[in-house]
Amino acid sequence: MPEAKLYPDIDPVSLGKHYTRHLMAMTEEALDSKADIATQLAFRDQHIKALEQEALDLRALERVVRNYLSTGAAQPGDLMLRSVLNSIETSRREYPLQAVTPNVEAPHD
Q: Which domain holds residue 26?
């Protein structure tokens, strides 16, 4: 079975403002070599990977906390909740989103 394409055929019009914003920025910033564009794509991939990991961590946290709270045993300052929060903090140190997005302004869509 052939491997899936990394770059599928996409109609740029379907991407709306996302496409035109990048097209304009690449033109204004003279970003026209494949190497320069690949660097920017890799940067985005790295950022997306970190966001995906954070989403997985948050889902896991939600499941653990929801299950724990359903027992009716939770008390303010409970050690179990602190342990879960420590795990999330560890994950944030391993995937520091701010380090992946230096001075990148969020798009205004």
A: 12-100
